[in-house]
């Protein structure tokens, strides 16, 4: 029996529908099948927007977030799951490949390749079950009707059978799961819908597997409790699109041209997620880009589908020369059918639907015979006839063509009843367009959106000229679309939903009107958005441009769009759809309040939101704002991974609301930053209850400066002992933990399941006793920690010795060690450097600033640095009592091993010019890759500066940051430095020269160099120098250069008056797009000049 069934299914499913292949002969599915992207799905919530919009939204989703499933594995549980999967519901938009997936699954089973534990497969498409709607029969009778070969079989005796119900959206009978009678006997008669519901519920054949496919809008007909796995066919991802075009055509050069053309048009390339659209595009572009045809290559959807229709009608002429009908008559009849059924929401039709449109069965057979790539006549399992267009979008295009031609040839508006139309004096094309726009806007599920794009696109003269080759148009083609364009812009102004307004912008694109979008693009590109008062239409255009830009929307920064005419809260509400489409949203220091939190909660609750990282730091949200936000965080649709709420004025009350939300939805959040909020021990205790949840996967927790004592630390570490394996970074700096708190924490660290990589405990009142407990734990479990910061704790000699015992352990992989202000002497440094000599290869960053190391300590350290196994990249020895003797030892070591160090900070050491000269010998070494050099308050004169700049001229291309603040460089030193800056190989990004005794003369030399090479510098600090207005005017000349990319400018206490301020304001108006921070503190500026600066709407302005 099984072999007979396999043979019959093999015959039926081994060939691809000839519609979607080039060849006239049948093509084997296995020859051209491209694996589709199927993912484990969502909650099954209905998405009330046109499927093309759903495809556009899905294209922005990151594939890494989803669980891909191969078609043949849809009944296999994932590794973590125990329960077997009995029923699967697969969603996907029209033409995405649901039926082909079903076909491939059946074919692989019939060929004995996969799922051989299934005894029999019964494919029962809804389009065929519709024909049985009025019949009463048992499940056995239904199966005998469709599958003759199982006539004598008792189906209840079979181990495992699979029922496949393809096309739930095509079902024309009701599915009432609440009120349908229970049926358990396979021989008991009932109507088809009763049989179906009892099969799905598991009352009939409880061991049977069920697979249902559906378009998204119909999927909610199946209750969630009846679905064990929800999957979604996403169609082709980007590599699969290219694979399709390359497999389809042997001419790889042509395939490459097709791919390049589609990639250049984002809206068309997104549509290629749908396999049927790939086929339509390939059919057209193979002709247009090959030798067969010439003319303008299609750039819009309307052009693509119109070319497709022309190609198919030309095929028909060659294939069916005896046709008594003209092309126009055939297109009109099919168009009428397409339009009438589209308005009813039908994709498949039966004989009675055809007769309504004046098409008899014979004509339908002729159409399906000659228009095989437009219109299909299917014979079901029982040879019953069902009709459909090859794809919904072809139906929508033909429907639009029918409406267009009815107006052109009969001057009739199909949206208005004939009786009403007689009362109208004259119908214009604008009337038809307005009616269509109104109907599309009224549609709840957007089912007329694509139809509207096609209808408006067909009114363009270029498309009408194309149409002349296949259809007769008797009306005048000379009309203006300006009235339609004006009407659409009016509708956009009325602010419909985001989905509706985005479709209206697509309509303007089809009408070749780009004025609104280009105006907004100009604002965005020039940086003038912050100075401009935008209308509601322009804000909608900003949303459209950002959502459809070529770059995938990754980071949304609110401050880029804040506008002096709108508050930050108002801008956020206008751009909320862009936030939902972005992966990261940066709202730090935007002046947001509780209202914004409520709006963001709606984004977090949205099933389609892409938002994974949210930074709301430095906004006075308070507890009320966090409570609003928590309403979104607790929603199971919320997939937020990173949440930053530093400096948000949150107390333990807000923390309680936040942790309650995280307990409800604990599995997604990976990073939480609550730095500098008054959480206190009570807040941390609430948070701890969330952390001990085994579903909590938090990897980074920052609670710096949160008023936590050893009591709060004890609660936190108790939670981490319960669930230790996920946390990777913990920052408890600036809390009064004391030794008792650190001892609690050490009990977590010694747990072998603890995988903590970063631990920051600065300023926590830890002594050598606490350090001993900590290092004892690290000796037990040394291999995971990569970063340790114990700065500003009184570790003393004994603490450093304990720490050194960890560092010399060969299993210790510590890469960053910060011990700033830890009361370490040169003697303590001996133990530390001895450990590093034993195990030198891992450490990348060492910070020992503000410890009394003196020259002897630095000499010991130098012995580590000259070791060829030492890979140290960052060394900070600020204020360590080092003289030029210690500097000589250090630079000697760096000459031996120069290629690793990237950052060196020797600020506030009295090295003088002789020390700088030693350092310069390292810098001019071509193997030296130093990127950051800080020599603040180094006692350098213009002589030392000359030696330094000479070295940098020899090797200018690596240095990115130079800080020489607090040195007596004077104008002569700055002139030397300027010679480096004007070198085109110089890539310096940050230059700090505060308090360097520079006048306007030195400033002129500096800015002259920057005018020669303006494009790299991002930060310039000239505070505390007597630049005066003449110096600031020189700086302004750099700022107005369009190549200048400066983001931060600090000119505090520079003796600047209103005159200099005016020059600066003028320059920033000329080139406003880059500067983010301007500090003019300590200058005597009048209020009128300050107002002018405030009008520039910089992210950070200090006056």
UniProtKB/TrEMBL annotation:
Pfam families: FISNA, LRR_6, NACHT, NLRC4_HD2, WHD_NOD2. Residues 86-218 form the NACHT domain. It is found in: Cytoplasm. Keywords: ATP-binding, Cytoplasm, Leucine-rich repeat, Nucleotide-binding, Repeat. PROSITE patterns: LRR, NACHT. It comes from the Eukaryota. One of its GO terms (molecular function) is ATP binding. One of its GO terms (cellular component) is cytoplasm. PANTHER family: NACHT, LRR AND CARD DOMAINS-CONTAINING (PTHR24106). This is NACHT domain-containing protein. The lineage of its organism: Eukaryota, Metazoa, Chordata, Craniata, Vertebrata.
